[in-house]
UniProtKB/TrEMBL annotation, chain A:
Cofactor requirements of the protein: a divalent metal cation
Single Gene Ontology MF annotation: metal ion binding
Compartment(s) of residence: Cytoplasm; Nucleus
Protein name: N(6)-L-threonylcarbamoyladenine synthase
Natural source organism: Candida verbasci
Superkingdom classification of source: Eukaryota
UniProtKB/TrEMBL annotation, chain B:
Membrane-spanning segments: none
Protein kinase domain boundaries: 15-251
Catalytic activity: L-seryl-[protein] + ATP = O-phospho-L-seryl-[protein] + ADP + H(+); L-threonyl-[protein] + ATP = O-phospho-L-threonyl-[protein] + ADP + H(+)
Enzyme Commission number: 2.7.11.1
SUPFAM superfamilies named in the record: Protein kinase-like (PK-like) (SSF56112)
Chief localisation class: nucleus
Listed GO MF terms: ATP binding; hydrolase activity; protein serine/threonine kinase activity
BP GO terms, sorted: tRNA processing; tRNA threonylcarbamoyladenosine metabolic process
Gene Ontology, cellular component aspect: chromosome, telomeric region; cytosol; EKC/KEOPS complex; nucleus
UniProt-recorded name of the protein: EKC/KEOPS complex subunit BUD32
Function: Component of the EKC/KEOPS complex that is required for the formation of a threonylcarbamoyl group on adenosine at position 37 (t(6)A37) in tRNAs that read codons beginning with adenine. The complex is probably involved in the transfer of the threonylcarbamoyl moiety of threonylcarbamoyl-AMP (TC-AMP) to the N6 group of A37. BUD32 has ATPase activity in the context of the EKC/KEOPS complex and likely plays a supporting role to the catalytic subunit KAE1. The EKC/KEOPS complex also promotes both telomere uncapping and telomere elongation.
The species this protein was found in: Candida verbasci
Amino acid sequence: MVVDLDKYLKQDKDYYIAIGLEGSANKLGVGIIKHSKGLLSNVNKAKVLSNVRDTYITPPGEGFLPRDTARHHRNWVVRIIKKAIKDANINKFDIDVICFTQGPGMGAPLQSVVIAARTISQIWQIPLVGVNHCIGHIEMGREITGALNPVVLYVSGGNTQVIAYSKNRYRIFGETLDIAIGNCLDRFARTLKISNDPAPGYNIEQLAKKGKHLVNLPYTVKGMDMSMSGILAYIDQLAKDMFGIQKKQLKDEESGEFITKEDLCFSLQEILFSMLVEITERALAHVNSNQVLIVGGVGSNERLQEMMKLMIQDRKNGQIFATDERFCIDNGIMIAHAGLLQYRTGGIIKDLKDTVCTQRFRTDEVYIAWRDD
Amino acid sequence: MTESLISTLEDKIPNIKLNCISQGAEALVFESDTHPYYNDSKNCIIKYRPSKPYRHPKIDLQITKQRTIGEVKFMYKLCKLGIPCPNIITTDFPNGIIWMEFIGYKLENNEISSFKNWLWYLEKNGNDHDPLKKEVEFVCIKVGELIGKLHLNDMIHGDLTSSNMILVQDDVPHLIDFGLSSFSGLPEDKAVDLYVLERAIMSTHSVYAESYNRWLLKGYQQGYTNKSKYKEVIKRLEDVRLRGRKRSMLG
Ligand SMILES: Nc1ncnc2c1ncn2[C@@H]1O[C@H](COP(=O)(O)OP(=O)(O)O)[C@@H](O)[C@H]1O
Ligand SMILES: [Mg+2]
């Protein structure tokens, strides 16, 4: 049986257009996508018409608070929507569906974006679709890279999950038992007072490139799950000892050289990414797959991609897929794309009260009606 | 490619016929009819942890050694306690090699009789093999009992999944794969061990997971004969589950 993706195609039209609004964390993104009718495939790819984003950046040492982030989104959402429509060069009445992130994410920022979505839906008389943020990442990653049935490593500020598809759901095989990888890196960046521009994780990556000495850190893989809070507490303490009032200096055992900030960033990345790659490989072995797709903001880290590549090379017919920062980092286009798939399989919201956002929304709660493999 | 990994082992143990039966996450597993010192040979298993090029060499060395030693230590202890697992034949720590007894049999679809393959086989061949029939319940309970016994002795498996249990004749489950094992009396560690299994069952056998998990826990209770400690673990398991569900997914 093949899923019919054209049951809801409008008369006299042979394509669909969707607009997607994303604002579950500190990035506000609006994207517009076009699907031609029929199944998506190598020869019938989704077409990105526009992809606009604005990031709320805080001073070094500070994380983004829900209230301030929500204010940022409110201030920018109208301008970003206008720009997305202009860039796409479409008539807004040609839009079939308005898609918004329904969760997971931070409450206040989600709220401010859904209000914009409801408003344009009412003014323009276009239906709404609520999208799970993680599903957005996965579907966009599959569409861009052409990975058919990969094990997905989803790594971002708020999420760390190893996911594989089975029987109409993206099922979570492994995940963090405490904090998310991006969160762990961001918090360490705050301890070191590293800049948040363009992103704390990016700046840690740059420092890590200059690190040489590996500091011993705990390694905490549990089955296909992992834990990071202990590692963060440990390295935070080291950093506080080194850069606090005590100025306690640490030496590398082999070379006798002093341990630097760069070495700490290097060591943290090495240990965390080793764990990520290991749990991904565990899931691969467990579901007998040989494809990996990395999605989410931390997925743009070059060292993580390199390590994953080295792992996959040692597996039979292994293949790795990753997207660049346009699609890896939170964006509106992925919400538009996943939302449009949902629309094409009848997933529109019929009653405004069902547009309420939720901070917790697990990946495996969504029924994937558009796949039947 | 796997071939180059296999040849690194062939260099280390020349003249041994090797048949690679699994490339797991951290180890390659081979079947061989050559025993290291006996002539009359039953088949044996050679588990080899190759070095992982993605890891920093220091991390790599530490993990390979720690896991190989840890696995063997755990198996000796199990053997001493009479908890079913393969017998150790010999080991080579620096090279990450363990020789052990081959256990299990081939299922009708020619797969190894791991608990996972066995369940999958029954799940796929629906009608005449109803996955919810008594036999499955019986085996789930046996597996649960085995884990209960393990925890009773303060032993943590660390990677409980349906692929890390092998059924031998008459459906007696044996445990394998102890690279992540540890010794601990803490209810938290035991609860996480159970939680990892529960989630593995949900993702691997999603349609029947609820029944499987219920039976596994029933067996666990039977195996964990220290009632007060058993209760502590189950109470903790509820906390761990809640933590999993409630974990806020934000930055
Ligand atoms: N003693 C054994 N007898 C028979 N099969 C085994 C034995 N040990 C391992 N296997 C097979 O090899 C697979 C991988 O072994 P395992 O020890 O679990 O390594 P990994 O850490 O790679 O998962 C198992 O799932 C099982 O099918
Ligand atoms: Mg295993």
